[in-house]
Amino acid sequence: MRVLVLIIVTVFGIVASFFDAFYGLLLYTFYSFFHPLALVAYTSFKDYRTSYITALVVIFTAILQKKKIIISHKLTYLCLLFLCQCHLSLLVRNTGMSVASSFYISLLSNAIIITFITSALIEDFAKFKMYMTAAAVFLGFMGAYYGFFGVFAGATKIKGNMTGDNNAYAAWLNMSLPVIYYVGAVLKDKKWRFIFKIVFIGNILAVLLTLSRAGSITLCIVLAILVLQRMKKLLFFVIIPIGCIALFFFMPDYTAQNRDEGVNQEQDAKQDA
Length: 273
Known about the structure:
By secondary structure, this protein is mainly α. It has helices at residues 2-17, 21-34, 50-64, 74-89, 95-121, 125-152, 166-186, 190-209, 213-230, 232-250, 254-272. Helix 2 (21-34) packs antiparallel against helix 3 (50-64) and helix 7 (166-186) packs antiparallel against helix 8 (190-209).
């Protein structure tokens, strides 16, 4: 049943992309952010590189519709030069390092290229709002599912998903939290705002269930930033002054340290005498 639903969504997204390549971009976002193949892990459907296929569909339909896929900008050229430098650096590396480096450079290249295409196909604010809402849904709902299911199942450890191990998935969830939070905050419908709050809490639970120490530290930082963004006056007039004053209590007392060293040197001198 899950495979059938996934096939229907894929076919519908591909057909819609021929009317507007932007809908193909949403389909790519669905596969990249939602990772639906994790739900059909026991079928042969997982072996297909669906994200690459949908990316090719987006590029092909955008060219057919005579749309720009790369915006002419100095930052675009700088990013392309950076990618060229990365690939050229593989030529001067030794064999052992080039294998690992080429994998990460390939991932970086894919991320930069799809960022170019996304920026070009989002032509107005309506599409930007639709894209960010879709991203928040695809990023958040699977994380919320893992979070609440893990709690109800007895705090089951989340070992990771297609993004990598538990640490990589914790980083993924932490990057998703601001998107989910701000998209939910701008929605007009109160029911959807409430749903996004639940999804936000579910993602926090998912980060904790990864049992990633780095993920937990990052979670505290992300939540602190979100709180401080809503409390800018408190940040500038209370927290920063208190933090500056607190630094004096944690700074080492060099005077006492030098005095103790002087006393020790004097005692050593007496013993030598």
